[in-house]
Here is the input.
Amino acid sequence: MSRKKEVIVSDVSKKHDNPIAELVQVACCFDSEIILESNNRKINAKSIMGIMAFNPTVGMSVDIVVDGKDEEEALQAMEKFLVCE
Here is the structure.
């Protein structure tokens, strides 16, 4: 059973030196499939090219959709990164 949560992206470029690569690294720590959705686009969070094209920016509404055995942890980690907690 997958889980989904909507978040509003914070200023990830202020908190992270290379936010796109770091976001992919976070996603790749988990076995679960992680998809980011916004404006009818769905991107695999483990794909650096996908994240570059997706380009999460400040104020953007993003749905994090996770499916797998560690989905709870994956969801929390992705949310924490995107909202810069």
About this structure: Helices lie at 12-15, 19-28, 48-54, 71-82.
